[in-house]
Amino acid sequence: MDQLVIESRGKINRGLKILGKRPDGYHNLDSIMVPISLKDTITLTKRDRGLVYESNNLDLAWTPDNFCKKALDLLEKKLARTFSLAIQLEKRIPLGAGLAGGTANGASILKGLNQLYDLKVDLEDLQAWALDLGADFPFCLYNRPARVGGIGEKIQPLEGKKEAILLVNPGYPLSTPEVYAWYDQDMDQGIQDQVINDLEGPVLRRKPQLVQVKESLEATGAYEVSMSGSGPTFYAVYKSPDQRDRAREKLEGTFEKVLACSTAL
User: Quick check: is 11 catalytic?
Assistant: First the structure.
């Protein structure tokens, strides 16, 4: 096999509770993570020598903060070898959106190279290696509904069902480390929120324009509305695709990105 095409799916956090900050600066969490049908596509092609990378998103250059590069560098270091290949990334998941798009891309590189080159690295080893790259990596490598704990390394499989989802993204990214710093600041001041995502309150206090996103989704009759991950994307869950599609028609034109998708099992 000389080429492999991979679907790199995003995820939503259906609840995110922060259980405390560790001495190393990471946060212990308890979250339900679910893959969604919104996905990027990565094509890996073997080459005789050298690396070629291209993406339809010009903001995703081959720089040290590119998760595809991070994943490739990690695998080359762990296996003490160099890969000659072409990486083509077709990006659809918004950047810095709280949907783990970049992490999903990195996870796809790890799994894809493992398959393309028949490396025979166990999933558990990939998850352990990649944890230093980001807390969402173990889940994105697992890529099925799960309850996630620790700093992301504890994966408890869950049964899932297909549900209609609407995503609203304001068109700008948020930095995950910065959002967690906001949370720590609010906790130091004794500010706590009664929401299913502990990061939502700190974000809304600093980005009050996102309140309109949440309230607009709530007004469409969704039975669950919350911010995903560290934001700024909000998701809404509907009883049917028809109800979701009516909500999408209502909100399109009001917000930068209104994306219909579903949970992916």
Answer: yes
2 as an active site residue: the answer is no
117 & 38 share domain: yes
Ordered per-residue pLDDT tens for the chain, 265 residues: 899 999 999 999 999 999 999 998 889 999 999 999 999 999 999 999 999 999 999 999 999 999 999 999 999 999 999 999 999 999 999 999 999 999 999 999 999 999 999 999 999 999 999 998 999 999 999 999 999 999 999 999 999 899 999 999 999 999 999 999 999 998 888 876 667 899 999 999 999 999 999 999 999 999 999 999 999 999 999 999 999 999 999 999 999 999 999 998 7
Check whether residue 150 and residue 216 sit in a common domain: no
**Side-chain-facing half-sphere of 30: CA atoms under 13 Å:** 4
**To which H or E segment does residue 200 belong?**
helix 200-206
44 with 153, same domain?
yes
Residue 122 and residue 249 share a domain: no
Distance of CA 170 to the CA centre of its chain: 16
Q: Catalytic pick from 40, 70, 136, 186?
A: 136
